[in-house]
Write a structure and sequence with these properties.
about 325 residues, alpha+beta, 2 domains, 6-stranded antiparallel β-sheet, 8 helices, elongated, DUF4420, PD-(D/E)XK motif protein
């Protein structure tokens, strides 16, 4: 698994030699795969090696935001004279590089032989290249920033510290279709944010968001924000704070980076997120009984993709004390 600890270990091991500093990955597998750092350029690499001549990929090699892929032939390499290399060109994209690299590792470990592994190496990178090309240049729009801020605020303030880091991050649904924002076996949370002056209503994207079919209990978390020119907290600062919380928990940190990328957040664009937020108030609502909502069973055949808004004032009868929510979270974390 590629993570900050591996790169720090490799970078601290650099000597005067011009040879790559390498570390074997997937030691239990049959493949020769390595993380590496070039001591001359400080560039990070993911290498897959083989002694088979037929591993050269036939399809064009991909390149993307901050990385490139090369096929190399070296005669004097005991781990394999044929090598495919994913190299980080721009350090600003190190978060993307690690996510792509870990996805490659997770896929090649299931391959049957070197040729399949080399083809899978290239195919997974091309898949990510296609995904990255679809992301908007410049980062998330204002509404997406606000929504992500609210989800990360809930993660930091209510889950991290109450349960293991791995479990907290794994509960985050991110961009998954049909998933609640945070899902446990018998409890789910849907997160909404508002920065309007009156905070009179919040918007529901479809008839499934407040449907309880996938959990025994659903709680709606509503974060009321104020946009500021100074003070408060930016989205990129909140991301950095959570990464600090996850330091030393490599699996959770890797998963967190994967989810950020899937929702369209990249560290290289962090400077673009200049909007700052102050939390005015936060509220929990128990979605039950006659809570104001539209769910799938209410719709006639042929009707779907329903968008609607809920008046904040009509939800107050269902409000739950934050301390009670914390106690509920503590119980499910046992």
């Amino acid at each position: 698994m590629l993570n900050a600890g591996i790169w720090a270990q490799l970078e601290n091991s650099r000597g005067r030699s011009s040879d790559l500093v390498v570390m074997r990955l997937l030691p239990q597998s049959k493949f020769n795969v390595f993380a590496a750092v070039n001591p001359q350029t400080s560039r990070r690499c993911l290498l897959l090696k083989s002694n088979r001549e037929d591993v050269r990929p036939l399809q064009p090699l991909p390149s993307g935001r901050g990385f490139e892929v090369r096929f190399l032939v070296t005669s004097a390499d005991r781990d394999g004279g044929y090598c495919i290399q994913l190299e980080l060109i721009d350090p600003l994209h190190s978060d993307v590089f690690d996510v792509i690299g870990n996805d490659v590792l997770n896929n090649i470990i299931h391959c049957s032989d070197d040729k399949e592994a080399f083809n899978t190496f290239v195919a997974r990178i091309k898949e990510w290249q296609s995904f990255l090309d679809q992301l908007p240049r410049g980062g998330l729009d204002e509404q997406a920033q606000q929504g992500l801020f609210a989800e990360l605020w809930f993660l930091r303030e209510f889950l991290l510290g109450e349960m293991s880091e791995d479990r907290a991050v794994s509960a985050w649904g991110g961009p998954k279709a049909l998933a609640k924002d945070f899902q446990f076996s018998a409890l789910a949370f849907e997160v909404k944010a508002s920065s309007g002056k009156q905070h009179s209503r919040f918007h529901i994207s479809n008839e499934l968001q407040l449907d309880m079919q996938s959990s025994d209990r659903l709680i709606l978390f509503c974060l009321l924000l104020e946009r500021l020119a100074g003070g408060g907290l930016s989205l990129s600062e909140l991301v950095a704070a959570i990464r600090e919380n996850l330091r030393g928990h490599s699996e959770a940190a890797v998963r967190f980076s994967e989810m950020l990328l899937e929702v369209g957040y990249q560290d290289a664009e962090a400077a673009n997120y200049t909007t700052r937020f102050a939390v005015r108030s936060q509220h929990f609502f128990d979605v039950r009984d006659d809570f104001p909502r539209i769910v799938e069973r209410d719709l006639r055949i042929g009707v779907g993709d329903v968008r609607y808004s809920i008046l904040f004032s009509e939800c107050q009868h269902y409000e739950v004390n934050p301390d009670n929510v914390r106690n509920l979270i503590r119980r499910i974390s046992l």
